[in-house]
Specification:
CATH topology: Pectate Lyase C-like
CATH class: Mainly Beta
Radius of gyration: 19 Å
Number of helices: 3
Strand content: over 45%
Length: 302
């Protein structure tokens, strides 16, 4: 039997709302908008927010991990003179954000220097990531898992050692108008249903776009993923995944790879300069070996 594949951050199992002992500063609140300025903590504003509120964050550098367990919240970065707010883990903090809140939107932030993940949401409905820049955020950049209704638009992700944009065990997904480069995988859709991956520019990763069905995960299917109108080129970066990671087995020079997923459409993409393969389709045995026992169908259909 194939060993369990631990895809989620270890923090998610022990996720709980942070209890702050510091003295909280007074925030400016106008109606349903709470404004945060540099020198304040974004988390303190989130803690006082109610469903339907917007937390508006002025430009500056914020060294914190955000816990987002409230639903109906918008986290919006304010751009001023070309500057935007930056979440910076200083290569010490684990995640830029962890949470489970539904009807959540995060926009116009830069996220950098975290050791595990950039923005991680688990078990939520209707989550939107838009106009984000993520750099050196550990295993994943944008990382929704077990969610329904995921929109990822106009995000740029680089220097991530697994997948820059990863959506796993989720349903009803859009990944659109994003840029991913310098990662092990640019975009990965794993064990998910009804995904549209379109109009993205994916280059200089080890692999461009992955659509996978892997065993021993909560979702046992990968179904109806459309990969259309993307530019996928020069994905020849060396593979720098962690030892033991499945993505570490993907050869450098891979453009688009479908593994065991069903009803995948790959159409109208510009694919060039990927030295191993432009488009590939494989079963699970190529990774786990013939004779392995699976809890999923190991071969791709349609």
């Amino acid at each position: 039997v194939v060993k369990s594949l631990m895809n989620q951050s270890p923090e998610i199992g022990a996720f709980s709302k942070r209890q702050s002992k510091r003295t909280k500063k007074v925030f400016e609140k106008n109606g349903q908008v709470i404004t945060v300025s540099e020198g304040q903590f974004i988390q303190d504003a989130i803690d006082m927010a109610e469903s339907g509120d917007t937390v508006l964050v002025r430009p500056g550098i914020y060294h914190e991990t955000l816990a987002m367990d409230i639903s109906g919240l918008t986290l919006l970065g304010l751009e001023e003179d070309g500057r935007r707010p930056i979440l910076d883990g200083k290569t010490i903090l684990s995640d830029g954000m962890v949470g489970s809140g539904s009807d959540l939107e995060i926009r116009k932030f830069a996220v950098r220097n975290y050791t595990a993940n950039g923005l991680m949401i688990n078990g939520a409905t209707n989550v939107t990531f838009r106009d984000l820049y993520l750099y050196n955020t550990g295993l994943y950049g944008v990382y929704p898992v077990e969610c329904v209704g995921v929109t990822i638009e106009r995000c740029e992700v680089t220097q991530v050692r697994d997948a820059g944009i990863y959506v796993g065990q989720s349903k009803d997904i859009i990944v659109r108008d994003c840029i991913a480069y310098g990662n092990v995988a640019g975009i990965e859709i794993e064990n998910s249903v009804n995904a549209l991956v379109e109009n993205n520019e994916i280059y200089n990763n080890t692999a461009g776009i992955l659509v996978f069905l892997l065993p021993n995960n909560p979702s046992k299917i990968s179904l109806n993923c459309k990969v259309v109108n993307n530019i996928v080129y020069d994905n020849n970066h060396e593979n720098f995944a962690d030892e033991g990671a499945i993505v570490g087995l993907v050869p450098s020079g891979t453009g688009i790879l479908v593994m065991a997923a069903d009803e995948v459409e790959v159409a109208r993409n510009e694919i060039r300069g990927n030295k191993t393969s432009g488009i590939g389709m494989v079963g699970l045995d190529i990774v786990f070996g013939e004779g392995s026992a699976y809890d999923v169908d190991p071969l791709p259909d349609k």
